[in-house]
Amino acid sequence: MALIVQKYGGTSVGNPERIKNVARRVAKYRAQGDQIVVVVSAMSGVTDGLIKLAKEIMPLPSEREMDMLLATGEQTTIALTAIALHALGLGAVSLTGAQAGIRTDGVHTKAKIQDITPKQIHSLLDEGNVVIVAGFQGQTPEGQITTLGRGGSDLTAIALAAALKASLCQIYTDVDGVYTADPRIVPSARKLEEISYDEMLELASLGAKVMQSRSVEFAKKFGVVFEVRSSLNENPGTIVKEETQNMESVVIRGVSLDKNQAKITLAAVPDQPGVAARIFKALGEAAINIDMIVQTASHGAGAPATDISFTMDKADLLKTRKLLDSIQSSIGYREVIADENIGKLSIVGVGMRSHSGVAARMFEALANTGVNIDMISTSEIKISVVIDLAKGESAMKAVHAAFLGRGNDGKLE
Ligand code: ADP
Ligand code: ASP
Ligand code: MG
To answer: If you count DSSP H runs as helices and E runs as strands, how many of each does the chain have, helices first?
Structure first.
């Protein structure tokens, strides 16, 4: 008898028919005698709708209250899924994150899981039930409800698979697996049979929302092998696992585009030791995650100054602006300029470590499409550029074609 964790995303539980479809799939596994823990997201559009409601009342609502609000999305789905299983004659019990024993720190809206005590899950499974757990949520030791960041149901599933030592972890979504690029933007993208944790982690943190990046980090840390597959058919999906030797022969595994970044430029920042530290310390203390940072050469003769640009999640832009406005006079930059119309385009592949000429080929593809590069950042296995949002999708197609187009499998000749 195997213990299987199955996670169903928003589209897979988007209406009563889809929820019944989930119940039928779970029933099939159950009939084989396996124990099943199901993790569900809120029905598609529900989380966005709740955020919109709150923002209609106040642009920057309390993060504690946002967690209270957003946790209701998943709570609706767990109960409906349990009801759908009852309708098929199966024993099923729904649990909130707190009831499932998911304990987190107190950073509201992006809490980290500290530990899981799955006592109740085990006893319900032993009684013959399917256990349905609300994704995306947990509880602090003090009893506060928290959420795990957008897309956080993936993390709930992976963390539960680790805590329960599940023999299988399946992430069901609305595409057949992980593709070389978002198939909704690049129709010629291909499904990957397998991908390494590091590549999946980079693709996810660089905008491929098929998996939440923190969930992949967690899977890597605890060695949870998982499969991303469709809830709408029986096709095999993509296996995400530790890197194997033959993965290095592929230079570019995939291309991703992050449209949810914003850029801030601080104009004329005094060019003195300690200034950047003060700015980024303040941002860090406000739990704002900064991504790329670029500082220009010093300008101005008497009192030298530089411009510092950096990118962050669009969702944090308002909070960031407010903070930077409040420390402007004490640090002494001239102006805070925000730009929401940027896109971050990235190529990812472990084979990049041992190949040269990759950046040149990417930049050439962009040049041929008339795309200007605003910022560049690289690591061992990725190259990212910030470009104009309006040109993001055409740039993505061009770069995908350059590395992974027809007859090209990501290996450079
Ligand atoms: P769920 O609601 O199941 O969690 P998401 O909407 O979060 O699903 O993620 C699935 C979506 O991710 C797909 O519909 C697809 O448009 C998008 N996506 C982005 N990049 C990729 C990629 N490289 N491979 C597959 N899907 C991708
Ligand atoms: N409902 C949450 C979101 O939309 C979590 C998830 O779907 O994974 O971000
Ligand atoms: Mg998701």
So the answer is: 11, 20
Please tell me if the CB atom of residue 41 comes closer than 6 angstroms to any atom of ligand 1: yes
Structure tokens at 146: 């928290």
Asked if residue 135 has its Cβ within 6 Å of ligand 2, the reply is yes
> In this structure, which amino acid lies at residue 148?
L
Contact 331, 278 (CB under 8 A): yes
Reported as a single tens digit per residue, the pLDDT across 182-208 is: 999 999 999 999 999 999 999 999 999
Return all residues near 380 (Cβ < 8 A) that are at least 6 apart. 352, 353
Ligand found nearest the CA of 228: 1
- Pocket-testing residue among 210, 393, 404, ligand 1, by greatest number of atoms within 8 A of Cβ: 210
Is residue 97 in contact with ligand 2, taking CB distance under 6 Å? no
What integer best gives the mean pLDDT of the chain? Answer: 95
What atom in ligand 2 is closest to the CA of residue 154? 8
- Classify 334 as helix, strand or coil: coil
Residue 299 pLDDT greater than 90, yes or no:
no
Probe target for ligand 2 pocket from 150, 173, 211, with the most ligand atoms within 8 Å of CB: 150
115 CA from centroid of ligand 1 (Å): 28
The sign of the dihedral angle between the CA atoms of 93, 99, 104, 106 is positive
Instruction: Please report the atom of ligand 2 found closest to the CA of residue 10.
Output: 7
* 54 phi/psi in degrees, rounded to 5: -65, -40
Contacts of 19 (CB under 8 A, 6+ apart): 13, 77, 80, 81, 84
Which of 3-7, 48-52, 255-259, 286-290 shows the lowest per-residue confidence on average (mean pLDDT)? 286-290
Atom of ligand 1 nearest to the CA of 154: 4
Percentage of the residues of the chain whose pLDDT score is greater than 90? 92
Which ligand is in closest contact with the Cα of 155? 2
- The atom number, within ligand 2, closest to the CA of 156 reads 8
Q: pLDDT per residue over 216-255, tens digit each?
A: 999 999 999 999 999 999 999 999 999 988 888 888 999 9
CB 153 within 8 A of CB 135: yes
Q: CA-CA distance, 84 to 81, in Å (whole number)?
A: 5
Confidence label for 260 from pLDDT (cuts 50, 70 and 90): very high
CB atoms within 10 A of CB 300: 11
